[in-house]
Specification:
198 residues, alpha/beta, Rossmann fold, 4-stranded parallel β-sheet, 4 strands, globular, Recombinase family protein
Length: 198
């Protein structure tokens, strides 16, 4: 079976481009989600995919970074696929399926994936370093304002503004922080910050 997996990091991003690419293969089924790639467990559709795959399935992604943001997660996911007898094909990497020798095919795929993971990790570290430098310069100039507060009375996002007021109301009633975090799908830190405002 040919299975596709598509992911974007936030609710306002679009999955259509990735889905269209996978339809050209074509795949038999697509698992899609709008979720951060921070960890495996928070991605319900990826977990469903991992539970459903069988021997000889081929998992397609448009790019390896759709599967994971760091080398450790990617390695864990790819090893899991292998243990299940499935193979991974990323559309941004060469396809070695025409090579008849399975061991050679796997070796070449492993080399490419290892290089990709190294490049992705290095790029993330460079981005973080540039961000740190930019923040340090902005602080020196006195223009650094920090990250915008997503859940607040002045949030530009009406949905997040509404959640902010609902959280405030329920906190005043004494509803537990953990209960609110699960109900509204926001971090404990966000709720603690709002609680301090009351």
């Amino acid at each position: 079976m040919k299975i596709g997996y598509v992911r974007v990091s936030s609710k306002d991003q679009n999955l259509a481009r990735q889905i269209e690419k996978l339809k050209t293969i074509p795949v038999d089924k697509i698992f899609s989600e709008k979720e951060s790639g921070k960890n495996i467990q928070s991605r319900c559709e990826l977990v469903k995919l991992m539970k459903s795959i069988k021997n000889n399935d081929i998992i397609y992604v448009t790019s390896l970074d759709r599967l994971g943001r760091n080398a450790e997660d990617l390695t864990e996911i790819i090893q899991f696929f292998r243990k299940k007898g499935a193979t991974l094909q990323s559309l941004d990497l060469p396809d070695f399926s025409a090579i008849p020798d399975l061991n050679l095919r796997n070796m070449l795929t492993d080399i490419l994936i290892t290089v990709f993971k190294f490049q992705a990790q290095s790029e993330r570290e460079r981005i973080r370093e540039r961000q740190r430098q930019g923040i340090a310069l902005a602080k020196k100039r006195g223009v650094y304002k920090g990250r915008p507060v997503l859940y607040s009375a002045t949030s530009p996002n009406p949905k997040k503004r509404k959640i902010y007021f609902s959280l405030k109301k329920e906190l005043k009633k004494g509803v537990s922080i953990r209960e609110l975090a699960q109900k509204y799908k926001v971090s404990l830190g966000t709720i603690l910050r709002i609680k301090k405002e009351i």
